[in-house]
Design a protein that fits this description.
The chain is α+β, with helices and mostly antiparallel strands. It is built from 6 helices and 6 strands, in the order H-H-H-E-E-E-H-H-E-H-E-E.
């Protein structure tokens, strides 16, 4: 999982350094939506690591399938919008603890029921100011406690890669977190 986390962090850095804006937002990787940033990251990874990602594809469930290797679900946690205003309900992508929803917890439950020989994993991209105005490591800690201690779901230890000095004036730093769903 650490390799997946590191490679997706590398892809985010590449997107950020291109300074290509997403839609009409300010340049940088931070404003990209989940499907767009995952697709663009996968394009980079297929070129950079063809042996690992040649057959990888984006799907509805899971978000990324690397046949015979990984079934991955992705989420973005971004408390501030492109305009610097705090977003409403920004934490629900990580913490909403009910089956059938679109949070990372719902994704864990979904991956547990997914067939196939692939290892299963959750990857979360977080974006914040530098220094953080809202410390996102706290919500990541809460996510792990909720998943492991309250819900008893089988995830691995946390894997993380940090990105600093990003181009966007609001999304100045990012972390890529990953957990294997141990089923």
């Amino acid at each position: 999982m650490q390799c997946i986390v590191d490679q997706f962090a590398e892809a985010l850095r590449w997107i950020d350094e291109s300074r290509e804006p997403f839609k009409s937002f300010q340049p940088g990787v931070g404003p990209y939506g989940e499907p767009q940033v995952v697709k663009k990251s996968l394009e980079y990874l297929k070129n950079k690591y063809p042996d690992d990602y040649y057959e990888a594809k984006t799907k509805r469930k899971p978000d990324v399938l690397i046949p015979k290797r990984w079934a991955l679900e992705f989420k973005i946690v971004r408390p501030f919008g492109d305009n610097g205003e705090e977003a409403e309900h920004w934490s629900q992508n990580l913490l909403h603890p009910y089956a059938g929803n679109v949070s990372s917890i719902g994704d864990i439950i979904s991956l547990m029921g997914l067939g196939g020989i692939e290892r299963k994993g959750i990857v979360v991209f977080t974006y914040e100011h530098d220094p953080p105005e809202i410390e996102l490591s706290l919500i990541v800690d809460c996510f792990e406690k909720l998943v492991i201690e309250v819900l008893g779901l089988p995830i691995s230890q946390r894997h993380v890669a940090e990105l600093r000095n990003l181009a966007h004036p609001v999304h100045q730093q990012a972390n890529v977190y990953g957990w294997e769903v141990e089923i």
